[in-house]
Write a structure and sequence with these properties.
- By secondary structure, the chain is an alpha+beta fold.
- The chain has two domains: 41 residues, no CATH class; 108 residues, no CATH class.
- Helices cover 40% and strands 17% of the residues.
- It has a four-stranded antiparallel beta sheet with strand order 1-3-2-4.
- Strand 2 and strand 3 form a beta hairpin.
- The longest helix has 25 residues.
- The radius of gyration is 21 Å and the shape is elongated.
- It starts with 15 loop residues before the first helix and ends with a strand.
């Protein structure tokens, strides 16, 4: 990556602060199109699962009362526009092996995988009954790192279609 050069007449040596500022501007310039494409990304489309939830929909925030295999559907929207609908971003199985559910939660909310020790700890806690998949999803969604993304989240527990 080529950083902008000092204008003619400026000293050739830059201070550390100026170099840092120039680097920050260049990184922002390179990442802005990537961030814009991520925001414009359409919702996930999967058979038997609605791709969007209405903006005022809170009816799905109810505990699971059904029986049989279930999954957690993660719907998100940017906090800056509360009138927009929530878009389906991920589907997380609520079944063993639970390390898949932990990975899916981290990818959906943080756009990265958990460290191996964290994955093992969460999966072990779910298997032992100390935590549920819902608690892990809500914990990752409430983390400082996830909140910095500026998204509202709706979790929907439903039967696997």
């Amino acid at each position: 990556m080529d950083l902008p050069r000092p204008a003619q007449g400026e000293p050739a040596a830059m201070s550390f602060a100026e170099l840092g500022l120039r680097l920050r501007v260049e990184v922002f310039r390179l990442l802005s199109p990537v961030a814009a494409s991520w925001l414009a990304e359409p919702p996930l489309v999967m058979d038997g699962r609605p791709p969007r939830l209405p903006a005022a929909d809170t009816a799905h925030e109810v505990p699971w009362a059904g029986r049989g295999p279930r999954e957690w559907r993660i719907y998100t929207r940017r906090q800056i526009d509360p009138r927009k609908p929530f878009s389906l971003r991920a589907v997380v199985p609520d079944a063993p092996p639970y390390d898949r559910a932990v990975d899916a939660a981290f990818l959906a909310f943080l756009n990265r995988l958990p460290d191996p020790a964290g994955r093992a700890d969460y999966a072990r806690s779910i298997e032992s009954g100390a935590l549920s998949v819902e608690v892990v999803l809500r914990a990752v969604a409430a983390s400082t790192e996830a909140r910095a993304r500026g998204e509202e989240v709706r979790l929907v527990c439903a039967a696997i279609p």
